[in-house]
């Protein structure tokens, strides 16, 4: 297990998984996600396949790991301070309690709400989120808070009808159902005062005192405090208060210093996580105010707001449906039942926290904050930031292994020192024997034993690297904060780390590689190319009126007067906005066009079918069915077209012309959208509402009205970003729903395809073709795919699964609700902050706030930086561990004395654990990181380069300091001085040189594989300040705190000797880096025999389980 824990890379994935059970709907694809067994990374094929080792720290993918797996590694870890070590891991008990809490709230919502209100009023322990105001109902509205809450909470349809339905309720709430409420701040505050704000009570984060208490829980520190108290009592008893308190007091002071520094570091980390959690909660939602669609924070939603709903949105508050078309809600987050609930005027009640699974509509907000079940649930569940990452688990394995070695060394030293003491081989600094049988007093024996015991315990403190797993959290917290500035919000800690190992990025085209600023630049009406495309005089009135009718009704967008009253504003998805803007230029009056017909049924745009439709009834009872979608798909359903004179013509002979027009636009990287319609007999339309809701819109025998080409330019800098990825060994693949020719043109423009010659059969493929291959063939073809066009969300999922089975570490971007399975399945799911739906964001690991591919590349840099920083810290810490343990063990065995005493070792531990982690774990990423290949899943944590560096430094330190320990008196020419003082000077110089070696070696650790270790050092102010503070404190310790640390002042020559010994580590590191290292990891030679030994045991266990 030892070498496995220390050296093994990302191991094979456990088969255990926890599936997320959620509805399986034909439009809302939330599959049962399976945790595929990942076959190694780039490093695995090279060094042979590791069998599943049964190692509890063998969890390469914590994203979907089972609770049993997570419990197993916790139980296996050697831990001195559980509350600190496991603070930032998943709270397993809380996860189990969460479901029980949700069920209780469903049953007892009214009682819990009363309790929360009472607690909120009576306690100061609870803080209210942004803009919270006390509930002071006024008589301004025709309905009171309690009446309104009870209607929604009890789903009381008869009470709603008594108030006149949603229309009557809106009048009581002074809301215009079409234009919403006014944006006036005073008016909004009145609503908040009457009905509450959309916030819920949240417990304050842990106080600094709590962190102090947790830092104190370390078993070894408690033992040291007890030892210090006993030593203090004995010292005062034998030597008096003036001299006797130093030994015990100095240990106690050193322990308290360790506790305080640890607590301060941990407290700062917790504040960073708290800020990130606030960002995650602050969802942006659309509301209609003053007739305009505006985006506001979810915390600013008030009762009476009119909220548009579309697929993938989170329901921001409790409410009642105003209008809805195929509106379906996933209520599993509140009810726990995995089914989609359809909403209409018969079932109009909407619960906050649920997701829109299908369709679109609008709702009237009737309950906010703790007046909703979601608010009560959020108020009762304290925020859990815990979540383990693969690196955290691996480092717990490393810490456990080092801890076992350290514990063994400490016991060995304890036995040696005790034997030497009681056999009379231990000498005082003046040369006298410490213990003489029958002569030495009992108090002196106890004092001597305590000193020996204290040294042994302190060795354990230094040897068990409690700070190692926490260094991951430290570097992740730092990286997450910095990534926010780089427009990336990390939702799942492990993703930040896994991104450094990404070998492929499957990126969307629209909005990620392109600007998402769409405009219609070309239009074919009939066979005529309208130039310019918005020249309405070139259109026949019949064609123009049908186009305007179809565009106005078959949309989820909106057109409204701008704030200044001059011109119009358009809202909706970028494609909708482009087409609506084109129609406005053609002379469309949006509100008038919508008022001239009534919507009967809607088929919302579907990314599987690539089109959306609407059936409308005109004032003369004529029925039109309008379709809009991917040009070649809509074209294939057309049997006729309207020419420029408004006459109906057969399309059969002209289909090739239209296909050529589409192809011509596509090769110029235009998105092609076709608009078509057909007439329908009114008597064939289902008369009753129930059948009408189930009516499938006819999608054949269509008449083509227009084909438009929409330009969406490439983002500036995207070509450079793609180039950086490819140089870093990360393959960029484009997965888009667009036409294959459009996708190919954009891929060439972005540098994903370098030349036309790259467009080979499997390199560029349609989603339909890819999904038809057998599974094994798909896995082979997936590795070649660079561009996938006309792909459905399911095709993206199949591609991700195939790539992961092929050993790739896959990052996927997605923005739609149907992208959720692929985002969940990928190693790293990246959702879009602007265009992404809430469902996509919840399924993702990182949110790209500006939807920009360049930000994805920055995330890769930060991911690699996390891994590199941890490796720097490991190299630094192992060097200190090896040197400190070796020096004390050799000295203890040979002379019965340890040159580094308890207080000195605690100071070294502080430099190494807390300050070292702060200095090295917060190094910013460099361009050098992007010149390497990705770190494979199974690559060793301690590389050959690191072994070389740390062994050179440790051997040098041990050799020099042991020479000083045994021959220091003559080398330093101290023989002529009094022996006790001479030994103190020698030991002080050893301690000083040892600490300075660590300070200078921190620079070496910054750049494990570069000659120049000082490049960029001045930019990292934290590193420079920590090194500076450590050095100043060391000077103070030696020169002024000798009584505490059992040291004496050194003269300037001895300081020069100490600095020279330390500074030699720099040229030594340069020379060391010229020594080549083998390509095969050293750990490979140790792990293979262990794997072979374990294999029969595993087979035996498997056979036993099968029986």
From TrEMBL:
Its EC number is 7.2.2.10. GO terms for cellular component: plasma membrane. One of its GO terms (molecular function) is ATP binding. The keyword Ion transport applies. Its main location: membrane. It is an enzyme of class 7 (translocase). InterPro entries: ATPase_P-typ_cation-transptr_C (IPR006068), ATPase_P-typ_cation-transptr_N (IPR004014), ATPase_P-typ_cyto_dom_N (IPR023299), ATPase_P-typ_P_site (IPR018303), ATPase_P-typ_TM_dom_sf (IPR023298), ATPase_P-typ_transduc_dom_A_sf (IPR008250), ATPase_P-type_domA (IPR059000), Ca_ATPase_N_dom (IPR024750). It is a multi-pass membrane protein. It is found in: Membrane. It comes from the Eukaryota. Residues 1-23 have a biased composition (Polar residues). Pfam families: CaATP_NAI, Cation_ATPase, Cation_ATPase_C, Cation_ATPase_N, E1-E2_ATPase. Keywords: ATP-binding, Calcium, Calcium transport, Calmodulin-binding, Ion transport, Magnesium, Membrane, Metal-binding, Nucleotide-binding, Translocase, Transmembrane, Transmembrane helix, Transport. Residues 162-236 form the Cation-transporting P-type ATPase N-terminal domain. It catalyses: Ca(2+)(in) + ATP + H2O = Ca(2+)(out) + ADP + phosphate + H(+). Residues 1-59 are annotated as: Disordered. The chain crosses the membrane at residues 211-236, 248-267, 398-422, 452-478, 954-972, 1022-1042, 1054-1075. PANTHER family: CALCIUM-TRANSPORTING ATPASE 9, PLASMA MEMBRANE-TYPE (PTHR24093:SF520), CATION TRANSPORTING ATPASE (PTHR24093). Belongs to the cation transport ATPase (P-type) (TC 3.A.3) family. Type IIB subfamily. Catalyzes the hydrolysis of ATP coupled with the transport of calcium. This is Calcium-transporting ATPase. It comes from Lithocarpus litseifolius.
């Amino acid at each position: 297990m030892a070498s496995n824990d220390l050296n093994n890379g990302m191991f094979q994935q456990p088969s255990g998984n926890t599936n997320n059970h959620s509805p399986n709907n034909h439009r809302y694809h939330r599959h049962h996600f399976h945790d595929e067994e990942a076959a190694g990374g780039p490093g695995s094929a090279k060094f042979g396949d590791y069998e599943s080792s049964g190692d509890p720290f063998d969890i390469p993918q914590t994203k979907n790991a089972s609770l049993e797996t997570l419990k197993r590694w916790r139980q296996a870890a050697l831990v001195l301070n559980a509350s600190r070590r496991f603070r930032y891991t998943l709270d397993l008990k809380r996860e189990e309690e969460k479901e029980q809490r949700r069920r209780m709230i469903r049953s007892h919502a009214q009682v819990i709400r009363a309790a929360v209100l009472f607690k909120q009023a009576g306690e100061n322990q609870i803080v209210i989120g942004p803009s919270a105001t006390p509930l002071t109902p006024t008589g301004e509205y025709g309905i009171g808070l309690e009446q309104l809450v009870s209607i929604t909470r009890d789903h009381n349809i008869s009470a709603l009808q008594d108030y006149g339905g949603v229309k009557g309720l809106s009048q009581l709430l002074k809301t215009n159902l079409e234009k919403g409420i006014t944006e006036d701040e005073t008016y909004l505050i009145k609503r908040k005062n009457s009905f509450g704000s959309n916030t819920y009570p949240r417990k304050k984060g842990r106080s600094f005192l709590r962190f102090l208490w947790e830092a104190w829980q370390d078993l070894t520190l408690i033992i040291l405090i007890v030892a210090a108290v006993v030593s203090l009592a004995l010292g005062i008893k034998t030597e008096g208060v003036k001299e006797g308190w130093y030994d015990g007091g100095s240990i106690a002071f050193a322990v308290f210093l360790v506790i305080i520094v640890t607590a301060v570091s941990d407290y700062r980390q917790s504040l960073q996580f708290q800020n990130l959690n606030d960002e995650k909660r602050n969802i942006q939602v659309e509301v209609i105010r003053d007739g305009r669609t505006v985006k506001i924070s979810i915390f600013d939603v008030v009762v009476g707001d009119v909220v548009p709903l579309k697929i993938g949105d989170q329901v921001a508050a409790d409410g009642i449906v105003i209008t809805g078309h195929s509106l379906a809600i996933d209520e599993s987050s509140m009810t726990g039942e995995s089914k989609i609930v359809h909403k209409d005027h018969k079932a109009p009640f909407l619960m906050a926290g649920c997701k829109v699974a299908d369709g679109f509509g609008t709702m009237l907000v009737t309950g906010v904050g703790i007046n909703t079940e979601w608010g009560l649930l959020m108020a009762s569940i304290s925020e859990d930031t815990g979540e383990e990452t693969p690196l955290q688990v691996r480092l717990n394995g490393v810490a456990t292994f080092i801890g076992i070695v350290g514990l063994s060394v400490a016991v060995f030293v304890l036995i040696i020192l005790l034997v030497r003491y009681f056999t009379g081989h231990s000498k005082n600094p003046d040369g006298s024997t410490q213990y003489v049988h029958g002569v030495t007093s009992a108090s002196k024996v106890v004092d001597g034993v305590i000193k020996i015991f204290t040294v042994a315990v302190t060795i354990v403190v230094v040897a068990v690297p409690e700070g190692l797993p926490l260094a991951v959290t430290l570097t992740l917290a730092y990286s997450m904060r910095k990534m926010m500035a780089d427009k990336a919000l990390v939702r799942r800690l492990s993703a930040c780390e896994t991104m450094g190992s990404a070998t492929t990025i499957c990126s969307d085209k629209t909005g990620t590689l392109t600007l998402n600023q769409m405009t219609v630049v070309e239009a074919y009406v009939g066979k005529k190319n309208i130039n310019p495309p918005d020249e309405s005089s070139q259109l026949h009135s019949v064609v123009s009126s049908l186009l305007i009718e179809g565009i106005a009704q078959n949309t989820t967008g909106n057109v409204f007067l701008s704030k200044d009253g001059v011109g119009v504003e358009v809202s909706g998805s970028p494609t909708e906005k482009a087409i609506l803007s084109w129609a406005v230029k053609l002379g469309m009056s949006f509100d008038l066009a919508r008022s001239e017909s009534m919507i009967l049924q809607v088929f919302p745009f579907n990314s599987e079918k690539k089109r959306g439709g609407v059936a409308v009834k005109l004032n003369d009872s004529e029925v039109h069915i309008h379709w809009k979608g991917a040009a070649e798909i809509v074209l294939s359903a057309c049997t006729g077209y309207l020419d420029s004179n408004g006459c109906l013509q057969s399309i059969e002979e002209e289909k090739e012309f239209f296909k050529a027009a589409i192809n011509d636009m596509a090769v110029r990287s235009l998105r092609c959208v076709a608009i078509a319609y057909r007439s329908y007999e009114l008597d064939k339309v289902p008369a009753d509402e129930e059948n009408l809701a189930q009516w499938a819109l006819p999608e054949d025998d269509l008449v083509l009205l227009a084909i438009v080409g929409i330009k969406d330019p490439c983002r500036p800098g995207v070509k450079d970003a793609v180039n950086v990825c490819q140089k870093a060994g990360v393959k960029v693949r484009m997965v888009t729903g667009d036409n294959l020719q459009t996708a190919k043109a954009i891929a060439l423009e972005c540098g994903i395809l370098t030349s036309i010659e790259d467009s080979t059969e499997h390199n560029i493929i349609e989603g339909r073709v890819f999904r038809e291959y057998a599974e094994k063939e798909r896995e082979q073809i997936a590795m070649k795919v660079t561009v996938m066009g006309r792909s459905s969300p399911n095709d993206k999922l199949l591609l991700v699964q195939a790539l992961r089975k092929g050993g790739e570490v896959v990052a996927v971007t997605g923005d739609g609700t149907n992208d959720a399975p692929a985002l969940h399945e990928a190693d790293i799911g990246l959702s879009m902050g602007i265009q992404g739906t809430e469902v996509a964001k919840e399924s993702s690991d990182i949110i790209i706030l500006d939807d920009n591919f360049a930000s994805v590349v920055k995330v890769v840099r930060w991911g690699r930086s996390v891994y590199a920083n941890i490796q720097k810290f490991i190299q630094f810490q192992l060097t200190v561990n090896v040197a400190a343990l070796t020096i004390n063990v050799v000295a203890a065995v040979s002379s019965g004395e340890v040159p580094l005493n308890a207080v000195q070792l605690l100071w070294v531990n502080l430099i190494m654990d807390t300050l070292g982690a702060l200095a090295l774990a917060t190094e910013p990423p460099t361009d050098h990181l992007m010149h390497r290949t990705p770190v494979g899943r199974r690559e060793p944590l301690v590389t050959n380069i690191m072994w070389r560096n740390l062994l050179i430094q440790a051997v040098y330190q041990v050799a020099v300091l042991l020479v000083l320990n045994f021959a220091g008196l003559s080398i330093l020419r101290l023989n002529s001085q009094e022996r006790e003082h001479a030994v103190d000077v020698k030991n002080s110089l050893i301690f000083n040189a040892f600490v300075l070696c660590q300070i200078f070696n921190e620079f070496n650790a910054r750049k494990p594989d570069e000659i120049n270790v000082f490049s960029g050092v001045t930019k990292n102010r934290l590193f420079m300040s920590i090194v500076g503070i450590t050095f100043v404190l060391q000077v103070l310790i030696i020169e002024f705190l000798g009584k505490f640390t059992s040291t004496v002042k050194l003269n300037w020559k001895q300081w020069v000797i100490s600095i020279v010994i330390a500074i030699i580590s720099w040229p030594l590191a340069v020379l060391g880096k010229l020594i080549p290292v083998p390509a095969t990891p050293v750990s490979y030679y140790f792990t293979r025999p262990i794997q072979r030994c374990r294999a029969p045991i595993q087979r035996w266990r498997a056979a036993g389980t099968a029986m």
